[in-house]
Design goal:
Order of helices and strands: EEEEHEEEEEEEHE
Distance between the termini: 27 Å
CATH architecture: Beta Complex
Shape: globular
CATH topology: Metal Binding Protein, Guanine Nucleotide Exchange Factor, Chain A
Number of strands: 12
Structural class: mainly beta
Number of domains: 1
Helix content: under 10%
Strand order of the largest sheet: 5-10-9-8-7
CATH class: Mainly Beta
Largest sheet: 5 strands, antiparallel
């Protein structure tokens, strides 16, 4: 199982190396208001598992609501690269679309976590509210 990846935004201004906590086995989507609009599939990495090798100064931070989660995107092309997770601030969520050799369409099923009723607000573990399926034609 591969756990180390090179990643970049669309324009290549932001580039990073990442060590994923469990390879691509942590793929997920979130149903919160921001993630519904963003539409990304994320995987997990510990905070010390992400190394921005180019363009750290070009990353823009976006926060909302409790401001616990920190969402980063390239200020040149606008692509979301990663975020510090609200449900586990010791981890980053990494956009799989930014990983070299990985496509969000590689996964026939992706768990969708309940970000509307966030576990930090409800004192429970994040329930899975469904599964997103991709069927190749």
């Amino acid at each position: 199982m591969t756990t180390d990846y090179h990643g970049a935004c669309h324009c290549g201004s932001v580039q990073f190396q990442v060590h994923l906590t469990d390879g691509l086995n942590t793929i997920r989507r979130c149903s919160c208001s921001y993630c519904r609009m963003r539409g990304a599939i994320a995987v997990s990495a510990q905070l010390d598992g992400l190394n921005i090798v180019k363009g750290a100064d070009l990353l823009t931070l976006y926060q909302f609501n409790t401001k616990t989660a920190k969402h980063y995107f390239c200020s040149v092309c606008g692509i979301y690269t990663h975020h510090q997770r609200r449900s586990d601030p010791t981890q980053f969520g990494i956009n799989v679309s930014c990983l070299e050799g990985v496509s969000p369409f590689d996964f026939p099923e992706v768990v969708v976590e309940d970000g509307v009723n966030h576990p930090t607000d409800t004192s429970s573990s994040p329930p899975n509210i469904g599964t997103l399926r991709f069927v190749k034609s």
